[in-house]
Amino acid sequence: MTSAALLTTRVHRSVDELPRAALELAATGTLYDSPGWLRYCEAAADGLLRHITLESGPGRVVGLATVRIVRDDRVMSLYNLRALLDGPSPDEVPDTAPLFPSAVAAVSGAHCVLLTDPAADGPLRSAQRGALARAVVELANEENCAATGFLYLGQEAAADVSDALGPGAGAPFLVAAQTELAGGWPDFEHYLATLRSSRRNKIRRERKQFAEAGVRTRVLHGTGGLDEDTARLQLALRRRYGAAGSIESILRDYTHLRATVDDRVRVFLCERQGRPIGMSLALVDGDRLHVRLAGFDYAALDADFAYFNAVYYEPILWGIDHGITRYSFGTGTYAAKLARGCVPVPLYGVVRWPAPLQEPATARLAAREEALRTQLGLPTAPEPRPDRGEAP
Question: Measured in Å, how far apart are the chain's first and last C-alpha atoms?
Fold first, then answer.
């Protein structure tokens, strides 16, 4: 194995600048590491994405990190370090220390691209992550960023990043959880059999009322069926929960999806008498299905449980017929997901805050983590770090 001392890094401002070896490394990861997804995120970020490659020799890429430069807090909470500090009292965290611009190692899908050589052993992969983390901080300094965050990491990777950055970064903290459902059932009834009897009966009623209300679901492959009607459904959901957006911005997002990951897109479009009343959009990743977003015409909804059918049951039914063995339902709205059989997979963050914010941020994040662990049903004490020899 190559010594960590010989590792070098390079910054690239576009996926198209990445060497072939980096694209091949990205293709070994998940959907959210793939070249197509990085191109999607790059288009959506309006030129604010940076990619760092780690090389152990000429042409030998052994690591890849992707970083978004966040200019201000007018950005999705996914990339907004200030949103991590929001609490019941506005006085909990001072506004005196600038947080923007900031550098955030995260991409859409609540994922941190921090790839290492899959052939390396545990200690070397930790060293490679550390080298990438230090290169991200160096990039942040060059871009005059006030703070640097690594979000949505696994436990082992978060510990490696924290170790590499030293006292300038705090300990890893729980930032969110991916919600995953293990599939592989022969039919929907076998899925229901994994749940409590009260929940099974409730879901059967929700399916029955959905059908009796005359709602039918069409499954669309690709983005061809996404249009202003589906954009209005998405916008209605965003407005219901106070999120920003417009028809134009959603249509632009469709264009980006079409240009990058069109073959992976599945749309579950719920219609009554030919009129769209709800939808969800998912991405196929081998035998995994990522359910990413939804939208509804709330004025047209009745006691038909269109939300739960569009977001959960229709994707599960399609997945049963198409070899899906694992479903990812994203972060947030945890109670509904856990009640339907999902398991929380903890995701961690590491942040280098401006000096005046370090102490109050640590206190706020501890309170936030305690509340989140309670919500997820996780142990209140942090889990022990995995054995360094285990595969991450």
Answer: 18
The full DSSP string for 76-98 is -GGG-HHHHT--SSTTSS-S-S-
Measured over the CA atoms of residue 54, residue 151, residue 333 and residue 344, the dihedral's sign is positive
In 3D, which of 266, 254, 261 has the Cα closest to residue 315?
266
pLDDT of 389 over the 50 cut: no
Pairing of strands 147-153, 114-116: unpaired
1 or 253, which is more confident: 253
Q: Residues 209, 304: contact at Cβ < 8 Å?
A: yes
CA distance 215 to 369: 40
Beta bridge partners of 211: none
pTM: 0.92
CA-to-CA distance for 26 and 46, rounded, in angstroms? 21
DSSP state of 75: S
Each residue's pLDDT tens digit, 357-378: 999 999 999 999 999 999 999 9
**How many Cβ atoms are within 10 Å of 48's Cβ, its own excluded?**
19
In tens, the pLDDT along 131-167 reads 999 999 999 999 999 999 999 999 999 999 999 999 9
Distance CA 347, CA 158 (A): 9
Is residue 306 classed as helix, strand or coil in its secondary structure? Answer: helix
Q: Are 115 and 154 in contact (CB under 8 A)?
A: no
